[in-house]
């Protein structure tokens, strides 16, 4: 999600491209797995989300 080539794509668009059909469900799954919302992770600019 932080790859500059995809900077113009929304988090929802990325989620849909990975097979999720509900952006809210994707966000919940991401937060459960990595401890932060995908948008927050993208905004912090790290290469890998921190697993909890």
Short account of what is shown:
This protein has 52 residues and is mostly helical. It is 50% helix and 0% strand.
Helical fraction equals 40-55%
Number of helices: 3
Q: How much is the average pLDDT? A: 84
Q: How far apart are the termini?
A: 19 Å
Nearest-angstrom radius of gyration? 10 Å
Detail the poorly predicted runs. none
DSSP strand tally: 0
User: H/E order of the elements?
Assistant: HHH
**Derived structural class:** mainly alpha
Which features characterize this protein?
flat, 50% helix
Can you tell me about this structure?
The chain is mainly α. It has three helices and no strands. The protein has helices at 11-17, 23-34, 38-44. 8% of the residues are buried. The model has no long low-confidence stretch (mean pLDDT 84).
SSE arrangement:
Elements (H helix, E strand, L loop, with lengths): L10 H7 L5 H12 L3 H7 L8
């Amino acid at each position: 999600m932080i790859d500059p080539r995809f900077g113009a794509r929304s988090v929802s668009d990325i989620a849909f491209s990975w097979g999720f059909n509900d952006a809210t469900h994707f966000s919940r799954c991401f937060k459960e797995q990595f401890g932060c919302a995908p948008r927050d992770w993208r905004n912090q600019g790290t290469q890998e989300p921190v697993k909890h």
